[in-house]
Amino acid sequence: MIVLSVESSCDETSVSISQNGKTILSNIVLSQIELHQAFGGVVPEIASREHVKGITAVFEKALKDADKTPSDIDLIAVTKGPGLIGSLLVGINAAKAFAFAHQIPIVGIHHIAGHIYANHIENDLEFPLIALVVSGGHTELVLMKEHYSFETLGQTYDDAVGEAYDKIARVLDLGYPGGPIIDKLAHEGQPTYPMPNIDTSSRYDFSYSGLKSHVINMINTMRMKKEPINHRNMAASFQKAAVKHLITQSKHAIEDVDAKMFVVAGGVAANKHLRAEVNKHFKDIKTTMPAFKYCTDNAAMMGIAGYFYYQKYQRQDAMDMNGFSRLDLRE
Predict the structure, then answer these.
(1) Which CATH class for the 126-289 domain?
(2) In terms of DSSP bridges, do strands 129-134 and 261-265 run parallel, antiparallel, or are they unpaired?
(3) What is the phi-psi region of residue 194: left when phi exceeds 0, alpha when psi lies from -120 to 50, beta otherwise?
(4) Rounded to two decimals, what is the model's pTM?
């Protein structure tokens, strides 16, 4: 089965061609990061406009690089949510137009399902598994007992871990996106600044608001007192506490469900310290993290998820399919 997939939930315009839920024939990603850096974050109106400008060319290049024509495509998978509604609708309408013009079945896929299935590209998923989903908008633990079966065990009470990274980077005037910058600085520093232990009432839930506020207050206090701030050590201190919380809650979930596999998914899966800590703490269970190019938003992951969705349910969506800024993973 040849799947053409489309991802446009935020600020990447991406189209991919994949085969049988495993082989990536092409994966074109048009990033808008440079446009949004001046604003310190993604501006929805700009993102939507750029999707409109670039999506046709991305479609054409994905087909060309895969050496495929529309008649070769068996299924179209497109991100239906969650995400920026304007951005989502550009991708959805383009995918629906392509499906209608060439009489190809289309399925709408949850963005987080795509991130989880990015792991299947290089390592077959084994069940039951625990997926740690970490990004700018999501921090959650998901149990999968079989393909395309999702049960959310825990999630963040407040800020997502990626959001906390971005806010700390902004306060330190480091630029956007903050995650890669903080990670790089942290590897050059030492965790010398005191950080609070993060404790939640649930074994599986997360909370980053307190840690974020602690770091911001510390920085502001030091600036008021005109004390020097070691950016590298501050980054290392924050990152150590943030990742420790992810590891602790993940251990709880893995132990409680006797998981056979642990997967890390989402943009923060590219974090080098997180990857090192996962390899360090989970030696007794098979673990997998996507290749760096599949951690951030891309259409290849949506094609893999779309393939398994269609294999399981054997149904397609109607041409009135809509986009959703919020969407339960089971929908």
Answers:
(1) alpha beta
(2) parallel
(3) beta
(4) 0.95
Name which of 55, 43, 45, 44 is nearest 13 in CA terms. Answer: 55
What fold is seen in the domain 2-116+294-313?
Answer: Nucleotidyltransferase; domain 5 (3.30.420)
Q: Give the confidence band of 331 by pLDDT, cuts at 50, 70, 90.
A: confident
By CB atoms closer than 10 A (0-12, 13-18, 19+), residue 100 is: exposed
Q: What's the pLDDT tens digit per position in 231-285?
A: 999 999 999 999 999 999 999 999 999 999 999 999 999 999 999 999 999 999 9
Q: Quote the DSSP letter at residue 156.
A: B
Tokens of 26: 């092409």
Residue type for position 38: A
Separation of alpha carbons 321 and 251, rounded Å: 38
Pick the range with the lowest mean pLDDT from 6-15, 35-44, 190-199: 35-44
Closest CA to 47 of 92, 9, 93: 9
User: What tens digit of pLDDT does each residue of 65-122 get?
Assistant: 999 999 999 999 999 999 999 999 999 999 999 999 999 999 999 999 999 999 999 9
Q: Is the dihedral of CA 85, 51, 31, 118 positive or negative?
A: positive
Alpha-carbon gap, residue 33 to 98, rounded angstroms:
27
Which helix (H) or strand (E) segment holds residue 241: the answer is helix 231-257
Positions of CATH 3.30.420.40 in the chain? 2-116+294-313, 126-289
User: What letters, b where the CB count within 10 A reaches 16 and e where it falls short, cover 213-239?
Assistant: ebbbebbeeeeeeeeeeebbbbbbbbb
Rg of the chain taking only CA atoms, in angstroms: 20
Residue 148's pLDDT is 97
Annotate 18-51 with DSSP letters as a single string: EETTTEEEEEEEEE-HHHHHTTTS--HHHHHHHH
Strand partners, 28: 15
Which residues, in sequence order, are CB contacts of 289 under 8 Å at separation 6+?
119, 263, 264, 269, 275, 278, 295
